[in-house]
Amino acid sequence: MANAAQNQHNLGENDERWRNVQSLRELFHGRFSEREAETIINHFHGNFQQAVNFGFEATQAEIEDVLGNGDGWQLVIYVRQHQVVQDLNRRYEITKEIRQFSCGLCNTMWWRKVPTRKMVSKCRTCKKRKKALPRDKEWGWARFNCVCGNEYHHFGAMDIRMLRGSNGVQLSGKSKSLCFRCNQYLVEPTEILPPRRRPRRSLPKGAHCTAYNCYKRYIPTVPEPIVPVCVHPRSLPITVLVAANSHTSTGSTVDTFMSQDDLITDINP
Ligand SMILES: [Zn+2]
Ligand SMILES: [Zn+2]
Ligand SMILES: [Zn+2]
């Protein structure tokens, strides 16, 4: 049985690898032979993203390291000069996202516009390069959608395990806020809004917060759902709710290709 499962697993992995080889060839408009594409994919242990970066950025030495001393380098040069691939490269390069970063050590948080394919930003204080926080770890001004139909904005956090409830017990999951229209439901954030997409950052009229740690705590006179913890920056005991992982350079770096200034647009106010 174990063998059958193992075979099944290998089959799945081979399938995936075959698909990646085809995608790589497609991306480079068939300029790589199947064998070359496969060699590149295998070199990166099946990691498609790394294989694509390699196609766009690797130096001659790196190419020869992978494809041998044959005409591999010439081929890559030819591929890169090919207009369609150049356009593609440009498109691929300019896809950017505004993402959240944090440094646990320096207790700082910031948002940066970074290229989708390399979402890294340097901490201004310790100069360490940080990976963008996954979307489900972000916190800040957020959109909420209550089951009563009300959509509103408030502070939210996608992961509150750094915080404790009123009884001192570690919390988990997303933060909650009380829908100010129905006053009945505790609502979790739908998404955290990057600074550029933020509507006016003010709390709606009638919004109040029953959390034990709220900086303007409200004690309800009639029974009302209790917010487990308030994530308004003024209520939080800490700045960094989730510390971003450090980025370790893979050697094939984008810095040789574009300057850091091109990559980073500071959108902090
Ligand atoms: Zn730092
Ligand atoms: Zn509601
Ligand atoms: Zn509050």
UniProtKB/TrEMBL annotation:
One of its GO terms (molecular function) is ribosome binding. The keyword Iron-sulfur does not apply. GO terms for cellular component: cytoplasmic ribonucleoprotein granule; nucleus. The keyword Ribosomal protein does not apply. GO terms for biological process: innate immune response; viral translational frameshifting. It holds the Pfam family UPF0515. InterPro entries: SHFL. It is found in: Cytoplasm, Cytoplasmic ribonucleoprotein granule; Nucleus. Keywords: Cytoplasm, Nucleus, RNA-binding. It comes from the Eukaryota. Belongs to the SHFL family. This is Uncharacterized protein. It comes from Dreissena polymorpha (Zebra mussel).
